[in-house]
Amino acid sequence: MRILVDYRPALRERTGVGEYIHQLTRAYTAAYGEEVLLFTSSWKDRPARNVSDQTGGRVIDHRIPVRILNYFWHRLEWPPVETLAGPVDVAHSAHPLLMPARTAAQIVTIHDLFFLSQTHDTTAEIRRDYGALAASHARRAHAVITSTQHGRQQIVDRLGVAADRIYVCPPGAPGWRTLGRQPNVPSDGCILFMGTLEPRKNVGTLLDAYERLLERRPDLPPMVLAGRTTSAGAAWLARIDAAPLAGRVTHIGYVDENAREDLYRSARVLVMPSLDEGFGLPVLEAMSAGVPVIVSSRGSLPEVVQDVGAQVNPEDVDALSAALERAAFDQNWSMRAAEAGLTRARSFAWDASARTLHRAYVEAVARRRDRRATQADTPRLPV
Predict the structure, then answer these.
(1) What are residue 271's phi and psi, to 5 degrees?
(2) Alpha helices per DSSP H over 289-330
(3) Could you report the per-residue pLDDT of 151-172, keeping only the tens digit for each?
(4) Pairing mode, if any, of strands 143-146 and 105-109?
(5) 163 CB neighbour count, 10 Å cutoff
(6) How far is the CA of 357 from the CAs of 107, 352, 362, in angstroms?
(7) How far apart are CA 110 and CA 155, in angstroms?
(8) CA 131 to CA 163: how far, in whole Å?
(9) Considering Cα of 353, then 357, then 358, then 360, what sign does the dihedral take?
(10) What's the CA gap between 153 and 112, in Å, rounded?
(11) Which residues does residue 44 pair with via DSSP β-bridges, in sequence order?
């Protein structure tokens, strides 16, 4: 097969969706050796020179602004990918809307449906297109890729997609150079948040919980916020620059893959109090590094961690504060949580997801062929 993958989310800072499509492509090409084309489109962002070596895919790069191409693709379903990349058997979109194609099987990727329930907290393009188009695009797709069983059930229930066209491909645990062999619970470690500073990450509630605990426990470890910010994060950044959080909470911005291991090594606990998550890749990274985790009881996070660490209602400041206190000061709990996390992380492997992805591609191509045959055999009524 000749497969075109939308690689644009991995062009700049590989967070979430970008890291997922990068690693899944790498695992797929390593396992199957098929021709994979990495489609990139941006006016200013260019793919890294070594991306082909990293992923095994060949870059197809166009200097077309992402917003303009997305508007034409989403609203006009033009131009078809074949005009930009040549003939392909599969056109795999990294997000919930189809890449238009003449003959290729079309696949979408849907990690969560946050854009349906919290429309006001999304970007202008997502507000314009996703709510109106995601359901019809998912039902038209020859296959839908998601990362959890929770996501799969949401796609069935809320978008009306047949369950047999949805394929669960979870992320795999990273391979650290030195971490992952034993618990990592340094006595002087920080409380770590990893993720984009956007509304659904619920950073405001995390700061509330930390500040409340700090009033009682001035020996509380410092907190580090790691991840790029958005316009919604401005108020949180202003807050940590003022008392009582100034000097206790630090924002270090996006952390690339080369520096991530050192950051996890410095952490005593990772906390992710999100209002919704399609998967929560930092949680898997932390567990695989032997770092205890505190997560929200919503979205896919309970499925990812199962009985590892602590789960809290993301809107309950007192519960989150109590979980932070236990992680910071209860060494026995931290060691048990870290050991359990290491065991849980070993169940996530990219090569297993690559096998599922291959099945999705093969079956999507067959569905595309069957649909075209059905359409060709359907007699036209006289006008």
Answers:
(1) -125, 130
(2) 301-305, 317-329
(3) 999 999 999 999 999 999 999 9
(4) parallel
(5) 10
(6) 11, 9, 9
(7) 8
(8) 21
(9) positive
(10) 10
(11) none
Provide the strand spans (E) within the chain.
Answer: 2-6, 35-41, 58-62, 90-92, 105-109, 143-146, 166-168, 190-194, 223-226, 249-253, 267-272, 293-296, 310-312
* 165-138-153 Cα angle (round to 5): 60
Tokens of 118: 């919290």
Using DSSP's 3-state secondary structure scheme, residue 197 falls into strand
**Which residues face 2 on adjacent strands?**
35
Q: HSE (CB half, 13 Å, CA atoms) of 338?
A: 24
Round to whole Å and give the CA distance between 360 and 194: 31
Common-topology check for domains 2-172+350-370 and 190-345: yes
Query: pLDDT of 84-140, one tens digit each?
Result: 999 999 999 999 999 999 999 999 999 999 888 777 767 788 888 999 999 999 999
Phi, psi (rounded to 5 degrees) for 320: -65, -40
Residue labelled with tokens 């992923």: 55
In the three-class reduction of DSSP (H, G, I as helix; E, B as strand; rest coil), residue 38 is classed as strand
Instruction: Report yes or no: 183 and 342 within 8 Å, Cβ to Cβ.
Output: yes
Mind listing the pLDDT tens digit for each residue in 129-151? 999 999 999 999 999 999 999 99
For residues 273 and 313, the answer to whether their CB atoms sit within 8 Å is: no
Which of 347, 315, 271, 284 lies closest to 20, judged by CA?
284
Say how far residue 36 (Cα) sits from the centre of its chain.
21
Residue that the structure tokens 């991840």 belong to: 227
Superfamily of domain 2-172+350-370: Glycogen Phosphorylase B; (3.40.50.2000)
Could you identify the residue written with the tokens 């410095």?
A: 266
**Alpha carbons 174 and 176: distance in angstroms, whole number:** 6
Q: Give the whole-angstrom CA distance, residue 119 versus residue 4.
A: 30
Question: Could you state, in order of their start, the residue ranges of all structural domains in the chain?
Answer: 2-172+350-370, 190-345
The answer as to CATH 2.60.40.10 being correct for domain 190-345 is no
Cβ-contact 94, 109 below 8 angstroms? yes
- Give the dihedral sign, CA 152/158/230/322: negative
